[in-house]
Amino acid sequence: MNLISKRSNKKKVNTSLIILSFIFGFLQVINFSQKNLIISEKNGFSEENANNLNIAASIQSDWELTTGIDGLFSTLNKPSGTQEGDLLVLHLTIDNTGDSLNGPFGWTILLPESQNNGQTTVSWYKIANASEPSSYNVTWVGIEDYIGGIIRITGHDRANPIQATAINTGTGNITNPSVSTTQNDTLIIGFHGLDEADQGYDYGNILEIGPTVLYANCTTIRGGQPRECSAGMYYEIQANQGPSDVRTWGIEGNEGWYAATVAINSAVYGINIISPTENEDFGVVAPNFTVEITVPDLDTMWYTVDGGLNNYTFSTNGTINQVAWDALSDGIITIGFYSNNTLGDRFFKQVNVNKDSSLPVIIIVSPVENENFGVSPPSFIVKITDPNLDTMWYSIYNGTYQSLNITFSSNGTINPTEWDALYDGTYSIRFYANDSLGNTNFEEVDVIKDIYAIIINITIPTLNKIYGVAAPNFTVEITDTNINTTWYTVDGGINNYTFTENGTI
C-alpha cells in the first residue's frame, strides 16, 4: 500500500463582511455571521433596534488536501487551532462503488453515503469537545484511491449547526442543487465527488462565475497521470433567505459524480437575557441577573437601571447593585445590558421589571397590649394583607430569652411548648410576614405571663352588643387553681353581684 499526501500552499482569505471557507479535502477555518445588522457607535448605534445584533468576522484560511492511492483507510488530521465548540466537517471520496465507508467514532453523518457512477462519497460532522484527538480515520474494505479532508468552522449555531442540505447525482457537467435557507446572510457550501481524474490536477476555473472556489483537485498524480477520482468545493454567502442558486461545474467528458449543497446556521452575536424575565416582580431586594453574551473579541460588559445616568460594569453574572436599586421608585424599571468589543462594536438588550417595595400590612387583633395569661398559652388573631403574601411566623422574646421562629398559616394558639418554657414575666410576641418579592414586615405586642394570675375570658356578651329591656345572659371562663369568689358589676363597682355559675345579669 502506497499512501501519498500533499499539502497545498496556505493562504489568507479576507473579506469585508463574512467569510467562510469551508473546504472538503482541506483543513479549513471558517468564521461567519450575518452582516446587515452590524451597528457600531460610528455608524449610528441605536438602543431601539439593537436587541438582536450580529457581527461579521474575518477568517484565516489554512487547509490541507489529503489524497492517497491504493489505500485501505484515510487518516485525516485535526485542523490546527481547533477549540471546544468548533464545528468540524469531514468529507471523503473514493474511487469505485461497493466499498462502504466507516467514519470516525463520535461523528454524525452529514449526508449519507452515495455510491454511483464509479465513485463513493460520504460526509460527517461533529461539535469539537475539549479533548479532540490529533487525527481521525475513515476505513473501507478494498484498495482504492481517495481524496478528503476536514474543515473547522466557527461562528455557527452550536446547538443546530446544519440548516439545510440537498444532493444530486449525474454524469457530465456537475450540478450542485439549490437549498432553501431560513436566515439572511447564510453560508452556502457546495462540494462534489467525481469519478476519474481526467479534469487535471486543478480544475477550479471551470466553476461558473459567482461562488468562490476553494479547491478542485484529483487524487495524486502517478507516472505523470492523474489517478482515479477527484473532489471540488466552493462557498458563497446568500444575502436573503430562500432558495439558493443552482451552481454548475463544466467538466470534460461524461464522468459520474455526486454533488451536495449545505447551508450552515450562523450564531447570533449579542446579548441574551435569561433572567430577570419581562415584567417579573421584585421587592426591596435587588434582582439577580443571568445573561449570555456572545461577542467576538469581547471587551467590556455593563448594565444600567436609570437610562445610562449610572453604569455598572460586571465580569460574571450576579446581582443588580443594591444601592442603585434602593434609589429607584416603585414601578416599571428598565434594566439595560451592554457589551462592546475591541473592534468598536457595541451590543444592547433590555428587560422591563416591576419594583414593588411595599411591605405586608399586619394588624394584631389579639392579644391586646399587656394582657395577662397564665398556664394556658394565649390565642392570637392577626390580619395580614399583601397581594404576594408568602410566609407568616412569630417569635417570643424579652431581654433574656428568644424563642425559635414558628410559622403559621392561620390564626390559632401560641405554641404550648414555647409557652411552657417561659418563666413568669413580660414578653413580646412579634408577628412577621414576608411576600414573594422579598419584602418583610413585623408588628409586636407585649403580654404578661403569670401562672398565678386569675384569667377571665368573656365569651358572652360580645363587645358593643346592643340589648333591650331584658338583661343579657353572660358566659365567662375563669381560670385559676384556687378560685374563691366571683362577681360582676354594671355600675363601676358601686354595686357588686356574686355568682357561682354562668347566668343572667
Description:
Keywords: Membrane, Transmembrane, Transmembrane helix. The chain crosses the membrane at residues 12-30. The protein is mostly beta strands and 505 residues long. The protein folds into four domains: 28-264, no CATH class; 270-355, Immunoglobulin-like (Sandwich); 361-449, Sandwich (Immunoglobulin-like), CATH 2.60.40; 455-504, no CATH class. 2% of the residues lie in helices and 47% in strands. The protein has two helices and 36 strands. The strands form ten sheets. Strands 1, 2, 3, 4, 5 and 6 form a six-stranded mixed β-sheet that branches. Strand 27 and strand 28 (406-408) form a beta hairpin. The radius of gyration is 41 Å and the shape is rod-shaped.
| Average pLDDT rating | 83
The fraction of residues assigned to DSSP E strands is: over 45%
Number of separate helices: 2
Distance between the termini: 121 Å
Give the uncertain stretches in residue-range form: 1-62
Radius of gyration: 41 Å
Number of domains: 4
Structural class, by secondary structure, is mainly beta
- Helix content class: under 10%
Largest sheet descriptor = 6 strands, mixed
